[in-house]
Design brief:
Blueprint (H helix, E strand, L loop, with lengths): L4 E7 L5 E7 L2 H13 L13 E8 L2 H12 L3 H9 L2 H10 L10
Antiparallel strand pairs: 1-2, 1-3
Helix pairs in contact: 3-4
Amino acid sequence: MVVVAFLYMLRCNDGTYYVGSARGDWDALNRRVGEHNAGKYGGYTKLRRPVELVFHQEFERITDAIAAERQLKGWSRAKKQALIRGDWALISLLARNHTDDPHLKRE
């Protein structure tokens, strides 16, 4: 697979998550995270630095990365945390229930 794009999730200093996408290779992704930490992007992450890369997924097409980004932006915190941990069973359960019952969280 030729990687040309990434979906990425950052954990912000206040514990919230930021989801984005970027073109390029692994170096480009690392550069993007550095740019977030430098405050280059004046949006959400600028006031919540430092940020840490907690999840990424590689894509062959930027359009696929952007579609995945839009999907993840709609996910709850519990579902994002399950994705970070790779807990596919919990993601499936949360998707089936269409709720994020706090009793289902495994931290």
